[in-house]
């Protein structure tokens, strides 16, 4: 099991079917709320570096705000072949949001 790192408090989580960015050490993490299920993945789009946590959610995918690549927040995979960002297990404990790195 990896390190659990607090990235937010529960009340900061994105609203239903929205995404949001959270700093985590030297990274930024995109947290998505898809139909009430919270997922975390790297924030940087592998196309040209767009901020995924500033995108909208459509059909369960986070849509990059720059050119519209769609990322599955559960698997980190994009529709483009082979494109995949890291995903992190998320836990909510005692009002804190923790991700496992
Ligand atoms: S930077 Fe994300 S789709 Fe281009």
Explain this structure to me?
The chain is mainly β. The chain has one domain (4-100): Rieske Iron-sulfur Protein, CATH 2.102.10.10. The protein is built from no helices and ten strands. It has strands at 4-9, 18-24, 27-34, 37-42, 56-58, 61-63, 70-71, 87-88, 90-93, 96-100. The protein has a four-stranded antiparallel β-sheet with strand order 2-3-4-8, with no helix packed on it. A hairpin with a 2-residue loop joins strand 9 and strand 10 (96-100). It is globular. The model has no long low-confidence stretch (mean pLDDT 96). FE2/S2 (inorganic) cluster is lined by residues 45, 47-50, 64, 66-69.
Strand content: over 45%
Name the CATH superfamily classification.
Answer: Rieske [2Fe-2S] iron-sulphur domain
Mean pLDDT: 96
Oligomeric category: single chain
Fraction of residues in helices?
under 10%
Using only C-alpha atoms, the radius of gyration works out to: 12 Å
Note the gap between the termini.
9 Å
Bound molecules: FE2/S2 (inorganic) cluster
Spatial shape: globular
Poorly predicted runs are none
CATH architecture term: 3-layer Sandwich
> Count of DSSP E strands?
10
Largest sheet: 4 strands, antiparallel
**Can you tell me the number of structural domains?**
1
CATH structural class: Mainly Beta
Spatially, the strands of the biggest sheet line up as 2-3-4-8
Instruction: Report the total helices.
Output: 0
Helix-strand topology string = EEEEEEEEEE
Please state the structural category: mainly beta
**What is the CATH third-level topology name?**
Rieske Iron-sulfur Protein
């Amino acid at each position: 099991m990896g390190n659990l790192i607090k990235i937010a408090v529960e009340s900061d989580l994105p609203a239903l079917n929205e995404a949001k960015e959270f700093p985590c050490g030297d990274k930024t993490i995109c947290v998505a709320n898809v139909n009430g299920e919270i997922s975390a993945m790297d924030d940087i789009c592998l196309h040209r570096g767009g901020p995924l946590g500033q995108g909208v959610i459509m059909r369960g995918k986070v849509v990059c705000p720059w050119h519209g690549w769609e990322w599955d927040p559960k698997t980190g995979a994009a529709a483009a072949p082979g494109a995949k960002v890291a995903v992190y297990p998320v836990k909510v404990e005692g009002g804190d949001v923790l991700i496992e790195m």
